[in-house]
Design a protein that fits this description.
Two copies of one chain form a homodimer. By secondary structure, the first copy, chain A, is α+β, with helices and mostly antiparallel strands. Helices cover 51% and strands 7% of the residues of chain A.
């Protein structure tokens, strides 16, 4: 393994980068940040596309290699840095965690990301309403799942990758004005998680690239 | 583990179900199918929502439990049935596979699924053009990634979960009229995979719930 410090390519408000920041903090992996200004289109610049062909954040340079896609990065960190685990040992519980991860990272977030919202807007649609609707539909399923799997956190009483994905999605839900009182388990768990240092430090408002007017 | 035969809740044309069918075939897991008519709205019926709170296919009853979300199901099968592996042993290669899985299952497919397309259409947009555009943007990244990672298949010379996700996405691309000649690696690898028995047997046209007019 390379002795160089890992480098995370990140953007404050990206919920995919928020996930990986949380995971790195949780595992105590010391890391440098390279900021990719999504609103300025820096993700499409040639030098970044060489790092990440998908033109999105995050990407992580670690162990002499470059990793892309937040879920793949988190699974890699789990496999190579198993201390402070974010996946349970039992295969059924692991599947429950991964199912919640995919419900958020695969079903909800991609459908309310910037590119889709801009297209909705270009057709004269209300992008905020669409984002709210998408999150509401997705959270109905997540809430129902949590009623079966949750303890203190999403799956049982330990923090897992499901929690790491939930908090950024709740941040988005708040931005779009979703009424979270309809989802009491999501709300309670996300509130509790937000008090934990790894999540606090990863929050968009605590990033050096977060514009000061956003923090209010 | 339960001795009951596993039960897959499936719909012929769902690319998420297509992935899991392929994975089950590849690993030689004998399985019964329960057909969920998505066009008839059967995924929203109470008895199915009890099985899968996300109101989508697939779901898999296996080992006395119910699993949801295609990627989580495939990871579970890989962990509990490691014979005929679909993930390499090396953590870096595993991350490459999972990155391609997420690029397809997280970035491309959700944005061109039926629910999004119907919304685009309701706003007066061209749903086929949007699907084509989404797949084109996503496949540009996948093709670039394959130029670094592929051998005979997506990552090296062995079939992996990345291949299992690629073939259903290429099926969708063809349905929407994407010009695959722009993506020679995707095209070549998907063609080769389509000759393999596990993929053939999982193809939408070879499902008992596929209407005969679709097969032409």
């Amino acid at each position: 393994m390379s002795s160089e410090k890992p480098m995370l390519y990140t953007y404050c408000r990206s919920s995919c980068a928020f996930r990986v920041r949380t995971c790195l903090n949780w595992k105590g992996i010391d890391c440098e940040y390279s900021f990719v200004g999504l609103l300025k289109g820096e993700q499409k610049e040639e030098k970044y596309v060489e790092v990440n062909p998908y033109k999105v954040v995050p990407a992580l340079k670690i162990d002499g290699i470059v990793l892309t896609q937040s879920v793949a990065i988190m699974e890699y960190l789990e496999e190579t840095r198993p201390e402070k685990p974010l996946l349970p040992k039992d295969p059924h519980k692991r599947a429950l965690v991964r199912s919640l991860v995919q419900a958020i990272a695969g079903d909800i977030q991609p459908v309310q990301n910037l590119r889709v919202l801009l297209h909705i807007e270009s057709l004269g649609g209300d992008k905020k309403e669409w984002a709210k609707h998408t999150i509401n539909v997705g959270f109905e399923g997540v809430e129902k799942q949590l009623s079966k799997s949750s303890g203190k956190f999403c799956v049982g009483d330990e923090v897992t990758l499901a929690d790491v994905c939930l908090v950024p999605q709740v941040f988005n839900a708040n931005r779009f004005g979703v009424d979270l009182s309809k989802f009491p388990l999501i709300q309670r768990i996300a509130n509790d998680l937000s008090e934990l240092e790894a999540f606090k430090k990863a929050h968009p408002h605590n990033q050096p690239d977060c514009p000061s007017e956003e923090k209010k």
